[in-house]
Amino acid sequence: MWKVAFFFFVSLLPVAAIADQVGFKQITLSNSDTRNLEAAIWYPTQMTSHQDYVGGNKAFVGVPVWRDAPPAPGHHPLLLLSHGYGGSWRNLNWLAQSMAAQGYIVAAPDHPGTTTRDRNPDDAARLWLRPMDLNQLMDQLINQPATAGEVDETRIAAMGHSLGGWTVMELAGARFDPQQFIADCRQRPQLSDCKLTSTLGIDTPLAQENLRSPLRNSHIKAVVSLDLGLARGFTQKSLAAIHLPVLVLSAQTDSSELPASIESGYLAQSIPQRWVRFIRVPGATHFSFMQLCQPDGQALIEASSPGDGIVCMDETGFTRQQIHQSVMTMVSGFLNASLNYPPAGTPLVSSR
Predict the structure, then answer these.
(1) What is the spatial distance between Cα 61 and Cα 66, in angstroms, rounded to a whole number?
(2) What is the pTM of this model?
(3) What percent of the chain has pLDDT over 90?
(4) CA-to-CA distance for 81 and 89, rounded, in angstroms?
């Protein structure tokens, strides 16, 4: 049934914003049971002044928001975001702002140890804490509605890019077997996620204990994976048991270091067909899901870090703006359909 609704919503997009303004704030969460988190939150607001731009710099384009604005009244669906290895909340800033403009509260932590500014090896080697970071952030927003508004606890979803895709699939019920992943990497040591085996602590006894434990979060009602990695470590039994809508988006063509056919494709083949939809996004590379680059962004990145300018490259004949519009249409349609949002009778078009 959700697939029928999915196509219905896609036909209506791009959707005019239900909430024309987007608030933004950054918070710090302290938890002695897990770890401290820095997080960014986008949310509907009714503020119409003091607009700011966030997430941009000399290399990347930011998005317009109303910083620290009061949240709009009413209950709102919640979308949790997880960035890839070495990334940050800024990578999906463009998508977060668009979803918040449609009425969602969107929240993204910077996962300690695997972010642009934090490469602490001890934190990086505790991979199993990444899904728990999202749980911690979700609980904070539910229990503290003054932060970004009232969360509709019946409408919560999670989305992640690259290692973030692995993170949200854990919350959907996928179970990672370190030995299965290590065995696969013996056959394909050239793959980029295999090169992170030790960095992420996958080959440690502690990982064997913690990564084999179920991390399913029953609050999560839908999941979106954006060109994920580490998928080959998920057991087929756990993927076959997933029973919530999953949208799997990948790069258009296989890359030599992270082939979509054996990462995203593995999910699509193993999750029951009634629950999964797999799309190779036209024009997309692995990095196309990141934020827009400034006109000279690629040159600036390449000058300071040779080889990393690739993050600004898309398939020939496509612009990142086009790719983002396509991804936004698919993600928005999927989430709206899966979460039955907006509720029946709610106008899709703003009155402004």
Answers:
(1) 16
(2) 0.92
(3) 84
(4) 8
